[in-house]
Amino acid sequence: MKNRHLFKIFISFCFYLICPKVMASAYWIDIKGTHKINEPVNIELCYGSMDEFGVRHRDTGKELQLAGDFRMRIIDSKGIEQELQLIIQKDCWRATFIPKNEGQYRIIGINDKHPVVDRSASGGENILPIDYISAFYNVGNLIITDYHPLQMLDLVIVSEKEKIIIKAFYDGKPTKSGTKLRVFNPENWEKEIVLNKDGEAVFYPTMKGLYIIRQDWIEPDSGTYQNVAFKSKRHRCNLFLLHQ
C-alpha cells in the first residue's frame, strides 16, 4: 500500500521450540499506518510461523482464537491512554486507533488467560504463563526518550545511531543488575545481554530487520488454574525493534 510502512512485531511466546534458525509458531503484530496525525492506524494481532525463507505465515486455528484474550492499550506522548478493542478477522485480531498528537506512541498488552503449560507427563513442573507486549509507533518527528514503566514487566528502547539502549523494569523499578535478556535477530539467532546496575543493557544491530528483546521472570507462586495445578508463574515481556 502506497505511503504506508509495515511494522511487524513478532511476539514469540515459544511454548514449543524447534531449532535456532526456525521460528516456532507464535504471536506477532502488524502495525500499518502513515505516521501522520488524524490518519487511522491498524494493529493486527496474528498467530503463525516463519518458514525457512524468513516469511511469516498466518494460521487460523485455536491459538489465534486464544489471542483474543490479550488486553491491549495505546498511550501517547502526553500520557493519554486508549484501550484497543480487538475484533476477530479471518486471520488476525484487529484494532484501529487515530493518533491526535505527534510523538511516540506506546502499545502495551497483557494476556493472563493462557492455559497452564502441563509438563507432568515428562516429569517437569507445570507453569502458568503470563505474557506482556511492548511496542512503539511514531507520529511526526517528536521522539520521546524519557520512559516510565507501564506494566509489571516492561521493556523500552532508546536508539542512539547504531547503538540500542534497552531499559528493563520489574514492578515499577529497574530490573536488578545481572539479569539476562534475550535478543533474537531477524534470522532468529539468539544472544544474551546482561543488565547493569541501572537496569540497562546495550546491543548493536548487525543487520536490517526485526529484532525481539525478551525479559523473563519466574514468580514462585503455586496454585490451580482451569483445574490444572501449577508450581510457578512465568512472566514474559517481548519488545520489538524494527531496524532499517
Categorize the overall geometry.
Answer: globular
Biggest sheet descriptor: 8 strands, mixed
Looking at the chains present, what oligomeric state does this protein adopt?
Answer: single chain
- Helix fraction, binned, reads under 10%
Sheet with the most strands: spatial strand order = 6-5-9-10-20-17-14-15
Tell me the β content: over 45%
Q: Overall mean pLDDT score?
A: 86
- End-to-end CA span: 18 Å
Total number of β-strand segments? 20
User: What structural class do the secondary elements suggest?
Assistant: mainly beta
Number of helices: 1
Could you state the order of secondary-structure elements as H and E?
Answer: EEEEHEEEEEEEEEEEEEEEE
Radius of gyration: 18 Å
Low-confidence parts: 2-22
Describe the fold and architecture:
- With 244 residues, the protein is mostly beta strands.
- The protein has one helix and 20 strands.
- The protein has one helix at residues 62-67, and strands at residues 5-11, 26-33, 41-50, 56-58, 71-75, 81-84, 87-88, 93-97, 103-111, 127-139, 153-160, 163-170, 173-174, 180-184, 190-194, 200-203, 209-219, 223-225, 228-230, 232-243.
- The strands form four sheets. It has an eight-stranded mixed beta sheet with strand order 6-5-9-10-20-17-14-15, with no helix packed on it. Strands 1, 2, 3, 4, 7 and 8 form a six-stranded antiparallel beta sheet that branches. Strands 11, 12, 13 and 16 form a four-stranded antiparallel beta sheet that branches.
- It is globular and about 55 Å long.
- The protein starts with a strand and ends with a strand.
- The model is unreliable at 2-22 (pLDDT under 50).
